[in-house]
Amino acid sequence: MSALVRKRMPELDTLRGVAILLVVLYHGLFWSLQDDQLTPAARQIGLLFRGGWCGVQLFFVLSGFLITGILADSKGRSSYFRTFYLRRALRILPVLLLFIAILLATHVVTWKFALLSIAFLANVAQLLGVPLQYPPLWSLAVEEHFYALWPATVRWMSLRGVAITSLALFVISPAIRAFAFAQGATDGMAYYTWFTLDGLALGGLMAIVARIGSRKAFTIGAVAILAIGFLGGATLVMTHEWSRNTIIGAAFSPTMLYFLFGGTIAASLLIGSSSRSALVNIRWLQFLGDISYGLYLIHLLCFWLYDRVVTKQGTLTAAFVLARFAIAGGAAIILATLSRRYFESRFLRMKERITPPGAPSSLLY
């Protein structure tokens, strides 16, 4: 049985694959289709994947875990800030700038939205009077805000202090959403950074516990948060409070998802570091996890461009919807694979050169 935190944690690549698959299914088979254009069978297919938006919440917990881990492991180094921000820039900026140029060239976004996206303000674009013209970019902005503030927190606090801060943020986040809902400020409840901190915070808390706690304590924590997620989520559903249209749902339904995903990540780490690691090392999901950044950026554009080229009059059948998903989704996977192999890899090699020795290779995501 190996340590929970290892240089290579392939089970997290599997979960990253799950997250991106959920998002692509959601956008391709539900969100990007007009409900009134669908036949009953096609509508049922979409309803199967309407919850795929939660893949973004899984990304948040993963990001909180991985980023807090690399910061905690390198906090004593003199080049702490320089190394972290240079590594993040090499991973994120080249692909993002290229992709925004593509969005401009295809007339999907305006210059105003493009500039806000480059400044990582896509999630608050509507506050600044600019429509959210390409929705996937909102979560990238949230993560960048996390990257901007969290390194200093980890640097200047003890690991226990970081754990306490993470726990406080996790507890405060539902209260912030409840207060905003009570005041009628429900716009951006799913997008604004101050409404989405609990997933990143839970991931950060788990990263510290995995380093300073025992395997037994981590196991107990995994069981506890999974149980809370299942029981809390079921309670919200049975009492019709899951929707964000109620104050309880707005406050706690995201939190229950974070509990479920945090428990899933913890369970995957426990299994992945045991003799049963094959259960969480699923190659095709790890492949999707490996190309997840490029795939996240480009998949919705592929569905939109498909709809520009292939016009369909009347209702959309199940066969048409599935063919659309296969063609546009397949094109997105191909483009993301080419990007990862021939474009992103150049910058990732540069990133590897400045990665602290012994750092988890999963942080190349």
Topology readout:
Elements: H1 10-31, H2 40-48, H3 55-74, H4 80-105, H5 111-118, H6 137-156, H7 159-182, H8 197-212, H9 215-238, H10 247-272, H11 283-290, H12 292-309, H13 318-353
Helix pairs in contact: 1-2, 1-3, 1-10, 1-11, 1-12, 1-13, 2-13, 3-6, 3-8, 3-10, 4-5, 4-6, 4-12, 4-13, 7-8, 7-10, 8-10, 9-10, 12-13
Short overview:
This protein has 365 residues and is mainly alpha-helical.
Question: Describe it for me?
Answer:
With 365 residues, this protein is mainly α. It has 13 helices and no strands. α1 packs antiparallel against α10, α1 packs across α11 and α7 packs antiparallel against α10. The radius of gyration is 20 Å and the shape is globular. The C terminus is likely disordered.
Which labels suit this protein?
mainly alpha, 13 helices, disordered C terminus
Largest sheet: none
How do the SSEs run, as a string of H and E? HHHHHHHHHHHHH
What is the distance, rounded to the nearest whole angstrom, between the alpha carbons of the first and last residues? 26 Å
Radius of gyration: 20 Å
The total strand number stands at 0
**Secondary structure: helix percent:** over 70%
- Overall average residue pLDDT: 92
Structural category is mainly alpha
Tell me the overall shape. Answer: globular
Low-confidence stretches: 361-365
Number of helices: 13
Strand content: under 5%
